[in-house]
Design a protein that fits this description.
Length: 141
């Protein structure tokens, strides 16, 4: 189950339309260890964002191709967030629709990898901590 959660969380942080929260909540309801669920989901989701960062760093030259993962308008919106809030905008990496482009743009703008990793991990781990905390509070196992 932990491997499934890791892989689902990893894919959810890429451009693929995958939701990891459902699997994490299901595992919590089945009595899996909360700390392991949090750690595995956070690590997978962060690694998925690292993939976006690497793609942004090395694949921007292909943005005119049909297969390129982000539309120009999406990149423009993410770039605006980065211009306005700088690296701190990565604390929104957990958000749907905005998080993936932000992590891509961080790579595109060559933000320090370690700053990127720390901020994205805080964002992703925080989201899973809140999710699991709420589930434990209202539906304890």
């Amino acid at each position: 189950m932990y491997l499934s959660i890791f892989l689902t969380a990893l894919l959810a942080a890429t451009i693929l339309p995958v939701q990891s929260e459902i699997l994490v909540v299901a595992a919590q309801q089945q009595g899996y260890n909360l700390w392991w669920l949090w750690a595995v989901a956070s690590a997978g989701n962060t690694l998925g964002s690292v993939i976006n960062y690497v793609l942004g760093r090395y694949l921007l030259q292909f943005q005119d191709r049909r297969w390129f993962p982000f539309k120009p308008k999406t990149l423009e919106k993410g770039h605006w967030w980065f211009e306005r809030y700088g690296k701190w905008s990565l604390l929104l990496a957990w958000t749907p629709f905005l998080g993936d482009p932000l992590t891509f743009i961080a790579g595109m703008l060559r933000l320090s990898f370690w700053q990127f990793l720390i901020l994205v991990f805080i964002s992703k781990a925080g989201r899973y901590a809140v999710l699991l905390g709420i589930m434990q509070l209202f539906w304890p196992q």
